[in-house]
């Protein structure tokens, strides 16, 4: 029970981190390059 809750929390934190990084990358680089980078990052 407690493990599941911890996993849920980690998943939410991970999504938030990815979301923040996505916004940063989008502003620093071009959109197509950022999207390709994100896809490569999430599939590893």
TrEMBL record:
Top-level lineage group: Eukaryota
Protein name, per record: Uncharacterized protein
Source organism: Gossypium arboreum (Tree cotton)
